[in-house]
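Quick start: read one record
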Amino acid sequence: MQPGAYPQPPSGGGELSLYKLVIFDFDGTLTEGDAGGQGESPLRAERFRLLRPGKADSRATLIPGAKALLRRLAGQGVVLGVVSSLGASEVRRILGPEAAALVEHYECGASLFGKTWRFRKIVKRARVQCSETLCIGHACRAIEAAKAAGLACGGAAWAAAPREILAARAPTWMFETPDEVADRLVA
């Protein structure tokens, strides 16, 4: 495979329809806005979340298509999980009651480098195999955490991280839009 290339599934969903559990790295993947709560640079916001997880700015909102994505996946029997540096109440507030009810497993208050074991906790709690789990994130550290947990990972190219940088981490799959995730996962 050429550098920066990533695998494409066979037409009709193929291997992607085998995933029973999808875990989203909430911050930046399902949200947009200032999730760090400081109105500052992304690096500074990350440092803030590392020091004081659980705080969100009221400007953090769901990305367009996030609720529809969660509805489509849950409607097809896919179990949903969320890992976030934010507190659970903040994640649920941003999701809203309808979308929050679709997510079965939450692991919130994660530190910058604490997502690997949180991914593993959700897999164990959901009682699925690692091979039946897909983690979707917008940042290199989410891809690396999923790989360290032994899980397939999808890069969210619609989010803030430059696509080329995300692809260089060699995620199992790359997704251009939330709609593409649902189209490819729901066979």
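Helices lie at 26-29, 42-51, 66-75, 88-102, 115-126, 140-148, 163-168, 178-185.
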